[in-house]
Design a protein that fits this description.
CATH superfamily: MFS general substrate transporter like domains
Largest sheet: none
Order of helices and strands: HHHHHHHHHHHHHHHH
Radius of gyration: 20 Å
CATH topology: Growth Hormone, Chain: A
Oligomer: single chain
Helix content: over 70%
Amino acid sequence: MTPPPTAGRALVPILAGGAGIGILASAIYAPSLPSIVAGLGVSEDRVQATFTVYLFAFALGQLVIGPLADRYGRRIVLIVGLVVTALASVVCALAPSIEVLLIARIVQALGSCAGPVVARAMVRDLYEGPRLTAAVSIMAMSIALAPAVAPVIGGQLEVWLGWRSCFWFVGGLAAFLAAMVVLRIPETVRQKSAGNLLAASASSYWRLVRDPVFILFTVMTAGSSGVFYAHTAGGAPLLVGQGGMNPALFGWLAAAPPLGFMTGSFLVNRLARHVRLHRLMGVGATFLVLATSAMTLSAWILGAMSPWAYFPLMYCVGVGNGLTMPGAGVRGISRHPGIAGAAAALSGFIQMSGGSIGTIAVILFAQGHAVELGLVMMGAALTVFCAWALVGRVRDGENTSPGGR
């Protein structure tokens, strides 16, 4: 199947923007964390909780969005999600207290979680086999720009306009994307699901959780997400709050892991036709373990988290994530094409739950401690490696996507 002619070349970029805005919203204000602490007069852990509640709501919301997209269509669900994101972002920008900010972040997450679910389902509607892998990798490289540019934009907005401007930026972008979907994106689902929505959702999720290969692939994405969001929640307090690093400089250097992700995704796109995806994912998982181990060791030797060791190693983490996440995501969802929306939703739920667990671990065990932050990341990286190793032991683990290698 090929993209509808009305979509044209705009389809993948707009879908990538819709999918990426949730990641952008989650990370754009990371350089502003110390300023929010001072501005709202609250403790650091309460502001860090805005990451945690966002990720949990983002994860849980996908479980509802998936069946809705299968039942009512991809397009309308994406439009409503982007509008809710825009409105909630305005409330975040105007929040007078940490309580209002926390509630608004939950609503913002519930809106933005429609993006990745619908984008992955739409791509799955349109492509198969190696073309699907290539399309997902291209979209993954585009989506990787969100966390790459988020801290850069956030750092500049923090320096010039203050932390509230970060949320105004997200709100404006969400409104723009909603307009683009209305004007340029057609419906892609061929046959909408029928019958009782609750029963159909329960049946779809039960079918998915009984598939060990699907679960293992999504656990891989959860571990990768855990590494990244541990960095998002713990990096700025250590380097900006304690180390006195300029927020704008932190923003520029924090683009290292997403740029590494783009590098890894590019390699997958170029090599997927010639090298088994399982092997590429294994290389990525090994990268993650080695990079996070080196980060922990350097923090222990130096007695602090040096930015000159931290950011190059985070680039390597990004390469590892780029090698593992696109392949793991597409192969998990492709096992169940008839319920692609539900599969994308459950995959997204597990992935973002991994990110939530990463932020919680930082709050509980690595608050202001460099070695402990490295250990949290290393634990998430080991989760990726172990899940990859187990996939290779499960029967048919090497042939899970149509036309895949």
